[in-house]
Amino acid sequence: MIVQTQYVTFERELRLHSGATLGPITLAYETYGTLNQDRSNAILICHAWSGDAHVAGYHTPNDPKPGWWDDAVGPGKAFDTDKYFIVCSNTIGGCSGSTGPASIDPRTGKPYGLSFPIVTIPDMVEAQRWLMDHLGLSSWLTVTGGSMGGMQALQWAVSYPERTRSAMVLAATAALSPQTIALNEVARQAIYADPNWNKGDYYGRTPPNAGLAVARMIGHITFLSDASMREKFGRRLKNEKFGYSFETEFEVESYLRYRGNAFTKRFDANAFLYLSKAMDYFDLAYGLPSLAGAFRHITDTRFLVVSYTSDWLYPSWQSKELVRALLQNGLDATYVEIDSNYGHDAFLLEVDRLAEITRDFLKRVETTDWRITVSI
Amino acid sequence: MIVQTQYVTFERELRLHSGATLGPITLAYETYGTLNQDRSNAILICHAWSGDAHVAGYHTPNDPKPGWWDDAVGPGKAFDTDKYFIVCSNTIGGCSGSTGPASIDPRTGKPYGLSFPIVTIPDMVEAQRWLMDHLGLSSWLTVTGGSMGGMQALQWAVSYPERTRSAMVLAATAALSPQTIALNEVARQAIYADPNWNKGDYYGRTPPNAGLAVARMIGHITFLSDASMREKFGRRLKNEKFGYSFETEFEVESYLRYRGNAFTKRFDANAFLYLSKAMDYFDLAYGLPSLAGAFRHITDTRFLVVSYTSDWLYPSWQSKELVRALLQNGLDATYVEIDSNYGHDAFLLEVDRLAEITRDFLKRVETTDWRITVSI
After folding, report:
1. In chain A, which residue's Cα lies nearest the Cα of B234?
2. Among candidate residues A286, A325, A282, the one with its CA nearest the CA of residue A303
3. What CATH number belongs to B180-277?
4. Which residues of A touch B193 (CB under 8 A)?
5. For the segment A134-176, what is each residue's pLDDT rounded down to a tens digit?
6. In this structure, are residues A78 and A355 in contact, taking their beta carbons and an 8 Å threshold?
7. Domain ranges of chain A
8. What topology is assigned to A6-175+282-366 in CATH?
């Protein structure tokens, strides 16, 4: 499956959640499969922190690596491109084609850096809604994603219930726990501590790679679980025996150093910071007496909430709280807890189990009439 | 209770586990209570990563803060200074009075920095054994400690079973899991990434405080639990509402920044690195077919192993594996899992429960004859 990244630029300003404005806005996106006659088979896949619009397939015949969720998106897969028209767009605030802190600020002709405004999950969804209109789509059959992608799926249902027939929320939460905020903050501090960061003003110079690598290493620990690290690495040494030095001794150290370093070649440190803040700010219950209140305007959207037993970043108790709040509103919400050792990464890896659940869920959504019409 | 730190310098060289030598060696230590006639009431308390010899009491009448485990050590407390003669010494490789990387290397007249040799938990115990001889003690009634202190208690039983009547191992392990090694490695990388670290050569210049603060913040996250962070901070904001900036938004961020920064005022970055490596290397099963083999020479030492339900740094499954290995050797081992939300910090905080268990355990140890005599 060969796919091209497409770009659309909106020559207007987006009023952000913070009160600031951002514009013009470019969005990078990819589409897979064919839109049907009545435009009822469109699915939006939202990516996580370090993801991009390239969810599946290859960019060229010789491309060494497929998109980030190729196991789940394609002909006959969980998100079947023979049946559905699938859209994935890079979020604003990121660094993979959509407008973010590394983009040129048209007012100054220089990269935004820290003058880029804070963007939130609702802001990302709003930009995606512009793309939806641009594509001539009045509703999504489902909006889905894991981690930060799951937060966007939830936000779609809250912001545009009349355009969201269903939401599949994987390994996500309605609000980050203090432990997860703390982990994000330490990752940020690692970047701030790198003198090359220079308060975000490093474009055209040496970027803060050392700080970004440390930040990403923290991430990699949280994506795995105690059990999966024992399976994957144990206490295996890089060499035959202890070297008694500060060189890499254990395979797990080697893995982290490699992953941290590799990340700096493909990701912008400021974008990393902005996306971490977007997640911290995400809180559907913010300003409300309880989470249930967040869903009070929703009537017909169906929900599938999936958590993974060993995910300690967005643990199952959070998904259960979310489902409880949906049920308190009388909404149609299904909860599945998948038994997995893979930790938070399970949403990317446990695709066979996900495929079964997705097929059943989408069949139910498809066979239920959707009478809401939206003029775009 | 007013106490003074004492110092002893051994003008000889210690052959380290790595094969390197270290000497002369100074140890900082404190003692509490009175040694009885037959010298049978001595207890060694071993400190954790950031601890020191000052386990309890005050250094001056106006001292604003007592020692690090004052809740557990003192008249009538878990470790009752009216009954026992208690010794606590700063480990080698640290920075609180004992020989470590910030000490002057007598061969060069300059601080060791990274020319300081890697020290291990057995090396720390060996230096403590010199102190034991210096104090004229032939056996410890018990050796105890939490975290890295618990590793030393275990090592005492393995290295010197004939001088260790019992070991109380709290919130510790016989070998770090890959997840904990990974967390240590990221903390080290945060220090390495600070240009002020300068490969350990920063004494007399600006120390790598930014890197050390990040490293310590990672530590603080691992000392707490998801549940205790929810209780302690929740998603409470520093100000009334979101400021939508990179300033501190959440109380938990504020806590981490404060703690990270405060730590740099009292701890040496190189010592932090060396102690993290000592823990990584600790593995009683290293080179053996199984952990049980580590205890094969022990006959009379009794063990109390305590873990805490929400401790995810040294989780209960590790303590259970340890107890199984002790029992496989026919040893007298008691295991207690304390239900606590405090995470790894529970060993410092759940002192009431610990006091009960300690009293019962020590009574059993005291009333059992100890016929082994050691000439020192």
Report:
1. A178
2. A325
3. 1.10.1740.110
4. 190, 193-194, 210-211, 213-214
5. 999 999 999 999 999 999 999 999 999 999 999 999 999 999 9
6. yes
7. 6-175+282-366
8. Rossmann fold (3.40.50)
